[in-house]
Amino acid sequence: MFTKSEFYDLVIKAYHSLYDFAYLKNHPLNKFLIEDNTLQLKERGWQMHNLLLETLEELRPADAAPSLSKEWRWYRLVTLRYVEVLQPQAVADQLSISRRQYYREHATAMEKVAELLWERCRFETTSSYGEAMKSELIRISQYDPYADLYEVIRRALLTLEKLFQDKHLTSEVMLSAEIPMTSIGHNLLRQVILGLLGMIAENISVNHLIFSSHIADHAAHVLIQLQTPGSIDPEAIEAQLGVFREMLHVAQADVSLLLDEAAQFCGFELVLPIDYDATVVVVDDNEDALALYKRFLTPHRFQVISTTNANEVLSLVLRTYPDVIILDLMMPNQDGWDLLQLFSNHPETATIPIVICSVLKQQQLALSLGAKAFLEKPFNEATLLATLTEVVAKP
Q1: What is the DSSP string of 346-362?
Q2: For position 153, which CATH number holds?
Q3: Alpha-carbon distance 345 to 324, whole Å?
Q4: pLDDT tens digit string along 12-46?
Q5: 72 contact partners, CB below 8 Å, separation of at least 6
Q6: Predicted local distance difference test score (pLDDT) of residue 56
Q7: Angle (deg, nearest 10), helices 41-57 and 4-16
Q8: Rounded to the nearest 5°, which phi and psi values hold at 170?
Q9: Do 283 and 187 share a domain, yes or no?
Q10: What is the DSSP letter of 147?
């Protein structure tokens, strides 16, 4: 049987062959959508053709104003594309939308068409298979709730290293230092990224991939971009995304195509959830210490933004406005005492609580200069959490 993503792919292929009756009479969905098993093959092709047309008509809004309704636009788009057999650019021109918007609207409209056909199919095991897959993904996510994005991408590129070499594909990872651990399972995210990179490698050669990221709307946006747009039909790539969308939706994540100004395929955008209660900026020149902070705090719903560069920390804090700042005292160029005074005196950072963390036993001095708490190194996970929880909870 079929998963919903496989079903969606078959529906797209059927509409691309709407007037090819020889193809439709043997289409894999034919036996599930046509109830009369006594019909000859030729008649089954006609029946399939008519059913596909009827399903498009089900999208027609009953009382919507054509110029204002997105539902009407979806109906017009699929009618122009498949009934009148216009090419994507011609459809976009008819609807006065960009080609990039055409592909977004097309994906939405065809998902609705596929859903209508799914409801008409006469099989029982597909749904149970889909539910079984969803249950398995949820089970995995419960035991593997977080993923280090950089590590997932690094390992995926290592796995595909030979394939990339054969296709003359190179890559560059430029992830933002502000991206925290994402609240999606490591294994689940790894499977999705491997799948997306595999799709690129199957269809494109001699190119350069750039991985970048930013935070917006409480989510991590990860871009996998081709330096030179690929000559691939975006509709064909869109049809293959269904299975990855199903996997990501379990973790409240999503994936979409990236298109350039000419509506050419140029990569993917992943939107991954970030689930945290508080943001912490850590300033320490010891990379091992920064890694320890992240390991201790991330599983407890803290977003950890770290830096070793004391000279740039003010701009980082003004950009992220954290719930708390942790400062090491002994750093080159500008030490923690200087930064404590800088933040305490700056009008936009004066209210942010600061925790001094050091091997120096200077608790009274730190508190007298404006720190909210003092944490002595070395510290353990419980002490760190207790200190931050108390500081963040204070008004």
Answers
A1: STTTTTS-EEEEESS--
A2: 3.30.565.10
A3: 16
A4: 889 998 988 888 888 888 878 887 666 676 688 88
A5: 60, 61, 64, 65, 66
A6: 93
A7: 100
A8: -115, 165
A9: no
A10: B
The CA distance from 200 to 214, in Å, is: 22
Q: Is residue 74 part of a domain?
A: yes
DSSP state for residue 323 in the 8-state scheme: S
Closest CA to 123 of 49, 51, 29: 29
- Find the domain containing 311 and state its range: 278-393
**Domain finish residue from 226, 246, 273:** 273
Strands (E) in the chain, as ranges, are 169-174, 207-216, 219-230, 254-259, 265-273, 278-283, 302-307, 324-328, 354-358, 373-376
- 287: its two tokens: 């990379």
Q: Residue 127 — pLDDT band, cuts 50, 70, 90?
A: very low
Residue 320 to residue 65: CA distance in whole angstroms: 44
Distances (CA, A) of 211 to 171, 197, 245: 8, 11, 19
pTM higher than 0.90:
no
* Tokens standing for residue 112: 């609705």
For the cut 90, the answer to whether the pLDDT of residue 82 exceeds it is: yes
Rounded distance between C-alpha atoms, residue 276 and residue 170, angstroms: 34
> pLDDT (tens digit, 9 = 90+) per residue, 128-148?
444 544 555 555 554 456 778
